[in-house]
What does this fold into?
Amino acid sequence: MDLKEARYILAIARQGSIGKAAESLFISQPSLSKYLKNLENQLGGPLFYRMDNCYTPTYMGERYLHYAEQIAAYGEQWNREYEDISHRKYGRLNIAIPIMMGSTLIQPTLMEFHNLYPHVTINVMEAVNFIAETSLKDHSIDLTFYNVHVFPKLLDYEVMQREEIVLILSAGHPLVSRAVDKPGFKHPWIDLNLFSGENFILLYPDQNTGGIALKLFEDYNMDPPVLLHTRNSEMSIKLAMEGLGIAFAPESYYHMAASHGSHPSLCLSIGKSPIVTTTIAAYPKGRYLPQHARDYMEIIREYCAGKR
It folds into this structure.
């Protein structure tokens, strides 16, 4: 099995059809069909079941794909390392991030990166779900930026910043007057227990902020009504700003939404001590990172330090 062969068969498995796989590989459908047929003849059995033009791996195909993934991963790492060794400035950087982090972290830092690497193409994959797993499953992803309160054990990572998780509500909310200045807190502080009967707009528990919210409720022995669950941080923040309910979010997310919002709102500190989340740049263990990826992490780290 060589690298070309591995990539061809992986494309068929991922796309589920010869036509889509050929398109993704920039080759003709007849050429790919012939390639697969010749390979299966050499192996003495089919790699895929064919049903209604849908290609599903056989048992032999599943085992083949297991090793093809490894070959493709090593091939990708070699290509990246070779780019560094030969001092070429051309390349690509594939990033996976939560949607709102694109505006708060990636967009403000891209111009500096582009000035440094004008011929490196950046592909940003934005998702509302938990994106760390993508870095483990998809060998094409170089870096995953996301917020954590529990550090991953299956990923290598570097810390980019730490910021406060704040409570967001409309400026006209009657409990705003109960907020006080408190030593050690950046924003006016309020007792979370005061909101035990208020409607909350929460992210799902498998998301960082959603998990933090549930832990806070547990610590405060609270079981408040939940008006809405969503995976969209921006929507939860804007609905809270409009007065529909109460939301939690990283401070940078709130400030980004507030800068474009039309409803008066504010954020408050909560907790016995500031509730802090950490933004990390993560990648699969043992993954070779090209120099431009390492440089981009440093650009983001310096940008975050400048906001403090």
User: Anything to note?
Assistant: The mean pLDDT is 87. Residues 162-275 form a domain with the D-Maltodextrin-Binding Protein; domain 2 fold (CATH 3.40.190.10). Residues 59-85 form the longest helix (27 residues).
